[in-house]
Records
---
Amino acid sequence: MKLFFPSFFLIIMMYSCKDNGNTINDLDGNTESVRLIQKAKDIHKRVITLDTHCDIDIKNFTDSVNYTQNLESQVNLPKMKAGGLDVAWFVVYTGQDTLIHEGFENAYNKAMAKFNAIHKLVEDIAPDEIELALNSDDVKRITKSGKKVAMIGIENGYPVGNDLTNVEKFYNLGARYMSLSHNGHSQLSDSNTGEIDGLWLHNGLSDLGKEVIKEMNRLGMMIDVSHPSKEAIKQMIQLSKAPIIASHSSARALCDHSRNLDDEQLQWFKENGGVIQTVAFQAYVNKEKNDTRNEALKPIYETIAKSLGNRWLEREEIKALPDEEQEAYYNLRAKVKRLADEKAKTIKDFPPKVNVSDFVDHIDYLVEKIGVDYVGISSDFDGGGGVEGWSDASETFNVTLELVKRGYTEEEIAKLWSGNLLRVLDEVQTIAQTLRK
């Protein structure tokens, strides 16, 4: 059974009761039926809520500091329980580096550390609270038992190196999707970042990347196209014998970013039978609104950073720092941003944050363009994701509430939250069984 009392009571606190409790008024003055909120609450309890992209920090998977505690991380067990998030797809992410043996080896070791951290959580730290799922039947069984569900995806095929057998190693450790690149061209695939300078390494997929696609089909691992280039995505769809996914992407027509999918690509997904997991990442949801707010926040960031004895750095400047300094600075950056957000609340007419409504606008657009059967939901929590109203897993109910407000049925909401993604996983695994025969 899901518990999400903090989120529900937060919503109630945002409204003032009128008409003997039959309606409530929100801060914008719009009336909203109490019955509508109760309806959303009931639906949220019944459907399986699944987020396909949650990054992790292995420092939060130790005996003393872990996801049984309500850490500052956007995802952990207390927040999942509070928000009624059933399934967190934990991501084995490695950044892009040089395409040489040392780079591959380093990435492989980092990937294995994250695999080990996830297994430590479900096997040693909290086996009574969360369990690893490998297929849709596992998801349904574990959810029914009352435990939370962990699943594993790989963001960036870089740690595969030049060794195709690593794909099966990762699959055997529980990975059920993988993207072939991240921000920067990998040995397997061009990245969307090539749009910046028009420079491509493979003009889509490398020969090894094509072999990896075949191997993923054979094993039953979903192909994730959220970071590769448009040409690479096209080639993956042409090569794959199974449906594909975009684990965390939104609609380019609403937000012109190379990480989002244009209308032509949306049709590819529909024809392929795949699913696009709409992502609650501010810069991919509404870049103009996000940029306006960030510009207004910049002098506040600089002032707060200076007061903490440091200097405010942009992301490109941070990437130029040594690895150990990057990590320390990202921790400082998170603190500065939290303090700046608090300061912004005291400033009249300060540019607003990208919010849940903006996020669901993308779901609406995708559903209108290709149909409700090909759309899902993701956050990119702890990897830069989150919008006002869904800033961490404890606020997951707010997404369901917004969908109910817009007239989505329980059946449609169930598809968006998990049904479509699990349908693709089933198809991928069924096709793999055929291929192995």
Note: Residues 3-29 have pLDDT under 50 and may be disordered.
---
Amino acid sequence: MKSLKARGRAGSPIAMVISMEQSVYHIPALLDQSIAGLDIKPGGTYVDVTFGGGGHSRGILKHLGPHGRLVGMDQDMDAWQNRLRDDRFTFAHGNFSYLKNFLRYYGITGVDGILADLGVSFHHFDEVERGFSFRADAPLDMRMNRSAAFSARELVGTYSEERLADVLYLYGELRQSRRLAAAIIKAQPTTTGELVDAVRPLLKPAQEKKELSMVFQALRIEVNGELNALRKLLSQSLEVLNPGGRLAIITYHSLEDRMVKNFMRTGNVEGKQEKDFYGRLNTPWRLVNNKVIVPSDDEVARNPRSRSAKLRIAELVARGENQRGK
């Protein structure tokens, strides 16, 4: 297996699979490291549950043999335009919280690897009408799945001030969440521009862009139920991975990372430890990287949006086999 310590380079073999078209849609973070971490078997079956622009999926396909199989999932039908014309590839339109059902539908009883990049794609930020960015005025939307009924406009129009403040504090880590929530509720914004105008007087000028990003991030996470979907994905990974299969997840938010870290160490997102008679930690996982993997300075320079990316990888051990926690 390729060393996980190897830093991704612009000219690395895997990085070069990204076409100009894909770079516009999304630049995958920690590409080389995540592909190496999956330890891909040529004849194995893998799932990229956040297909997006297809960058990670193309990296996986390069390591699969003629009998290998890859499923690329995405809840945003816009990603369908990036589907791979390869007999080994299947595109599944859906939320990864339903991973087990989708695999059953395609006749797959077990997989050898699951990859998730939880970051928002360039496409979502750059498609102004989707309402993910504060840089241009657009309908207050933020839905990853356009067919979903609940948008950011419904959120600010129906949540109480207290509930909205909790969202801003938990998912945006904004200390003045109550003042921000009060301003938003009072303004009842229907566009991103109106939302910016409502909160801007409460933001520090030197930190305005950062704090606006935190406001939009909090609303996006709530609108799309991202943490609940992640919880379901983690739980289902125990059911669909074959023994020895790898789970590789790239997070961008402290709450996501804490859930993944706890799950990979203990088998549950709360981090509750269960030990056997000898004091050894009962966990279904073996950590592949004891230390979280982050982008190199070179990668951040090429792709600033990867700055907060964190990659964790774990291998599912045989059922019933206890592993000492690390």
Note: Confidence is low (pLDDT under 50) at residues 1-23, 319-326.
